[in-house]
Design brief:
alpha+beta; three-stranded mixed beta sheet
Length: 81
C-alpha cells in the first residue's frame, strides 16, 4: 500500500490508476491525513430473477385507488371512469 499527496495524485493519476488496476491499493492524503483510497474495482454479480418464488403480488395491487384518483382529479374522476 502506497501513500501519495493530493498534488502527486493529480499529477500522476494515470500512473496511479495503472498500479491500482494491477491490484495495488493507494491512499491519497492531505496534509499527512488519509482522505481517500484508490482500490481496484470489483464488479458485483447481477442476478436476474433473484427474488423469484420469494416475492408475491396480485394484479389487484396495480388497480387504481379511488382515493388517490380523487386527490389528483377531484370528485368528477369517479364519473368519468
Amino acid at each position: 500500500m502506497a501513500t501519495v499527496n493530493i498534488h502527486e495524485a493529480k499529477t500522476h493519476l494515470s500512473r496511479l490508476l495503472e498500479r491500482v488496476s494491477k491490484g495495488e491499493r493507494i491512499v491519497i492524503s492531505k496534509a499527512g491525513q488519509p482522505i481517500a483510497d484508490l482500490v481496484p474495482h470489483r464488479s458485483a454479480p447481477v442476478t436476474i430473477g433473484g427474488l423469484k418464488g420469494r416475492l408475491a403480488y396480485s394484479d389487484a395491487d396495480f388497480d387504481v385507488d379511488p382515493d388517490i384518483q380523487r386527490m389528483f382529479y377531484g370528485d368528477d374522476a369517479d364519473a368519468s371512469s
